[in-house]
Amino acid sequence: MPRASGELERRFLEPYARRAFAGVPELDYLRDLRAGGLPANVELNEFYFRPGAMLGVPAAQQSYISSNYTHVARDMRARGTNAVLVMVAERGGRYSLSCNPDLTLDVVKAMRAAGAPCVVAGMVNRKLPFMLHDAEVGEDYFDVLVAASMPRRW
C-alpha cells in the first residue's frame, strides 16, 4: 500500500488508496520489516519492491535480490529459500496460483526435487482471478492454507 510522508500527501493519497486498494490485504510482514520488527529467526529476501517503497528501510535494502525475472527461481534457491508464500484463488476445493504460477511452480519443484526443506503456504484471496491449466493445484500442494483477512489500516 502506498504510504504518505506528510499531511498534504496523506490528504491526497487516502481517498485514492481507499478506492484503488479496496480488498487488498496489507501484509503484516512488510509492516514489521519497515518497523525493524521481524523476528531474529526470519530472513526475508525480496526480488521486487515498488520504486521508492523501501527507502529508509536498511534491512529491506540489504536483503534485496537484484535479479532478472528469468533468474529469480535460481537465485532464490541459491539463497537457501525454505518457504514460499503465495496468494491463491480458490474455486470448489481447487486452488489457482492465479497470476504468479511460473515462479511458484519452478521454485517449489526444484526445492522438492533437491530434497531441500520447503514449506509452501497459500493465502486464499477471493478477489484474485482463478487461472486455469498449469496454474491450478490441489490442496495437497500446500503445507499451509489460510484465508486472507482484509482489515483496513487507513
Q: If you had to describe this structure to a student in words, what would you say it looks like?
A:
With 154 residues, the protein is α/β, with parallel strands linked by helices. The chain has two domains: 1-66, no CATH class; 81-154, 3-Layer(aba) Sandwich (Glutaconate Coenzyme A-transferase). Helices cover 30% and strands 16% of the residues. The chain has five helices and five strands. The chain has helices at residues 7-20, 28-34, 58-62, 72-78, 101-113; strands at residues 83-91, 94-96, 119-124, 136-137, 144-147. Strands 4-2-1-3-5 form a five-stranded mixed β-sheet. α4 runs parallel beside α5. The protein is globular and about 50 Å long. The N and C termini lie close together (10 Å). The model has no long low-confidence stretch (mean pLDDT 85).
Keywords:
alpha/beta; Glutaconate Coenzyme A-transferase; 5-stranded mixed β-sheet; 16% strand
Can you summarize this structure?
This protein is of the alpha/beta class and 154 residues long. Helices cover 30% and strands 16% of the residues. 10% of the residues are buried.
